[in-house]
C-alpha cells in the first residue's frame, strides 16, 4: 500500500523528530563506543541502535506492512514489499561527530516507492535544523524553500566530501583530495554525508562528492539536494551510489565531474 509523498513525509518528520530527541537525550547522558563494524574506526554507539529500534517500532505502528532498510539492523523484520513502500533509516549519520559531541550529526529517514525515493527528512540532532523534500515538491529547511548555489566557477567553489572507513579507501580518497584542492576554493570534510547534501541544497557549500556511500547515507539528503536543483549522479551518467556520488549545481557539474573522472575518484578499494 503506497501513499502520496506528502503523507509519507509527514510520518517521516514525526518519527525523525522523536528519534532526534532520543539521540539528543542519550548524548547528554554520555556516550561511548558500543562496538565497531567494518574497521576499528567504524563505530557504533548504544544510541545508534536505540534510535534505529525506536524508528522501526514507530514505523511498524503506523505502517506495519512496509519494508525497512536500516544501517544497524539491516532489513529488520519486514521483508521487501513489491510495489510498496520501503523506509531507509540512518539513525545517526555522523556517528563519530556524535561520539565527540560535535554538532554535526543527524537522523536521516527516507521513503522509497518502487526503488525511487519520494520523501525524505534529515534532522540535525544537535541544532534541531530540519531539511525535508518530496519528489517534485521541492526542498525545504524549517519552512523555507531551498535553492542550490549559483556559483559557476569551480575555482571559486567550496566542495564538501567525506571518507570511508577502510584504510586503503581512505588513502585513495586523500590522494583525490590532494589533487583536487588546488582547483577549488577549498574542501570541507564535516563528517555527515546526509547533512553535507542538505548544506549543498542551500548553497552553504557549493557541491559535494564522495565514494562509498551506503543507501542510508544518501537517500534523504540526495532527494533534498536534487529537489534544490543540484544534479546528483555517479560518474558518466550512472546513478549516484556506492561507486560515487556527485552533487553539484548544473554549472559546476561538468567541471567537477571531469576532474573527478580524471582523478579516478570512483576507483581504488
Ligand atoms: C558516515 C558519515 C561520513 C561519511 C561516511 C559515512 P556514519 O556515516 O556520513 O561523513 O564520510 O562515508 O559512512 O557512519 O556516521 O553513519
Automatic annotation (TrEMBL):
SUPFAM superfamilies: Carbohydrate phosphatase (SSF56655)
Keyword field: Hydrolase, Magnesium, Metal-binding
GO biological process, one term: inositol metabolic process
Gene3D superfamilies: 3.40.190.80, Fructose-1,6-Bisphosphatase, subunit A, domain 1
Catalytic activity of the protein: a myo-inositol phosphate + H2O = myo-inositol + phosphate
Names of required cofactors: Mg(2+)
EC numbers on record: 3.1.3.25
Keyword check for Metal-binding: yes
Pfam families: Inositol_P (PF00459)
Record-annotated membrane-spanning stretches: none
GO molecular function: inositol monophosphate 1-phosphatase activity; metal ion binding
Residues involved in Mg(2+) binding: 71, 90, 92-93, 217
Class of this enzyme: hydrolase
InterPro entries: IMPase (IPR033942), Inositol_monoP_metal-BS (IPR020583), Inositol_monophosphatase-like (IPR000760)
Superkingdom field: Bacteria
Protein family according to the UniProt entry: Belongs to the inositol monophosphatase superfamily.
Protein's UniProt name: Inositol-1-monophosphatase
Species for this entry: Micromonospora globispora
Amino acid at each position: 500500500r503506497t501513499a502520496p509523498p506528502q503523507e509519507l513525509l509527514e510520518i517521516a518528520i514525526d518519527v525523525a523528530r522523536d528519534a532526534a530527541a532520543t539521540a539528543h537525550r542519550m548524548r547528554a547522558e554520555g556516550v561511548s563506543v558500543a562496538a565497531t563494524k567494518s574497521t576499528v574506526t567504524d563505530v557504533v554507539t548504544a544510541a545508534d541502535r536505540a534510535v534505529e529500534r525506536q524508528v522501526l517500532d514507530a514505523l511498524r505502528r503506523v505502517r506495519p506492512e512496509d519494508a525497512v532498510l536500516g544501517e544497524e539492523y539491516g532489513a529488520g523484520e519486514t521483508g521487501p514489499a513489491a510495489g510498496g513502500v520501503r523506509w531507509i533509516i540512518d539513525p545517526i549519520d555522523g556517528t563519530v561527530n556524535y561520539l565527540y559531541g560535535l554538532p554535526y550529526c543527524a537522523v536521516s529517514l527516507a521513503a522509497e516507492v518502487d526503488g525511487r525515493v519520494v520523501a525524505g527528512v534529515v534532522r540535525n540532532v544537535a541544532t534541531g535544523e530540519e531539511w525535508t523534500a518530496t519528489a517534485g515538491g521541492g526542498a525545504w529547511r524549517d519552512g523555507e524553500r531551498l535553492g542550490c548555489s549559483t556559483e559557476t566557477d569551480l575555482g571559486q567553489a567550496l566542495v564538501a566530501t567525506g571518507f570511508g572507513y577502510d584504510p586503503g579507501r581512505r588513502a585513495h580518497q586523500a590522494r583525490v583530495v590532494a589533487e583536487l584542492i588546488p582547483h577549488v576554493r577549498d574542501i570541507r570534510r564535516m563528517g555527515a554525508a546526509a547533512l553535507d547534501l542538505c548544506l549543498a541544497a542551500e548553497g552553504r557549500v557549493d557541491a559535494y562528492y564522495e565514494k562509498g556511500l551506503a543507501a542510508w547515507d544518501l537517500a534523504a539528503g540526495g532527494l533534498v539536494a536534487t529537489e534544490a536543483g543540484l544534479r546528483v549522479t555517479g560518474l558518466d551518467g550512472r546513478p549516484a551510489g556506492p561507486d560515487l556520488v556527485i552533487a553539484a549545481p548544473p554549472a559546476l557539474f561538468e567541471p567537477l565531474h571531469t576532474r573527478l573522472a580524471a582523478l579516478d575518484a570512483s576507483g581504488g578499494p
